[in-house]
Each structure stands twice: as C-alpha cells, then as structure tokens.
Design goal:
The chain is built from 4 helices and 6 strands; from the N terminus they run βββααβββαα. The chain is an alpha+beta fold. The protein has a domain of 80 residues: NE0471 N-terminal domain-like, CATH 3.30.2020.30. β2 and β3 form a beta hairpin. The two termini are 22 Å apart.
Length: 140
Amino acid sequence: MAGLQRGGAVPQSITVHAKSRVLEVGFSDGAVFRIPFELMRVYSPSAEVQGHGPGQEVLQTGKREVDLLGLDPVGNYAVQPRFSDGHDSGIFSWDYLYRLGADQAQLWAEYERRLAEAGVDRDAPMTPAAGHSHGHGCSH
C-alpha cells in the first residue's frame, strides 16, 4: 500500500479524545502526536477527497466540528475512521498518520492557502462537486 514503508514507526497506542476532537497516537520511535479530527478529515487519503490524480483534489470545508464515530483496524498496517459527516472511505496507514502528526503545521498552512485561493471559508458548508455524488463510485 502506498505510504507504508518497511521499518517505519508503528503505533503503540491510539486514543480517541472525543471532547477535544483529537486522535492521540504514540509511535514505536517515541513520537506522540495529537491529530485533530478536522485535519484527518480534510486530508483523508480517500479518492473522494484526493481525487483520481494530481490536481483533482476536492477542497474540504465545514469540517471543524466533525467527530470520529469509529476507528476500524485494517490488517496490521492502517485504520479506517468513520466520521460524523458520513465519510468512511479513507484508509490511514501508519506512515500516513505519522505524516499527519509530524507535518501538522505545514499541512494546516497548505490547507489555509488552498482555502484562500478558492475564496472560501474553512467553515463554509460543502457543496457537491460537479459530477460527483456522495456515493462516490469511482466509475469514471
């Protein structure tokens, strides 16, 4: 799977902090990250968010209050979160979670830049993307 490196750090603990809306992940190399649910949702590795190639990413908005309803294991390499807005198709490898934690400042800055370029507010409601429905079937 893309984003999975041999010998990479693996989670030793994963704690969902519902009130503060963060996922705390402690890795085998000693790193501990508190990853906001919003950041996870905005950067979900799913095709619904990332598109099917460079330049096809779908800018996510209105995710500040998103909750994590569940976190399902995927083999020994990832978790699949279920978010309160119905999104549940992103599979987060250990390396991807590590990147979200380690690169949070850079990822937030990139997100804010993309919002500014699009002229939309972080809290604006999502509008259906042209040609895409919520039941994204990857049929094209």
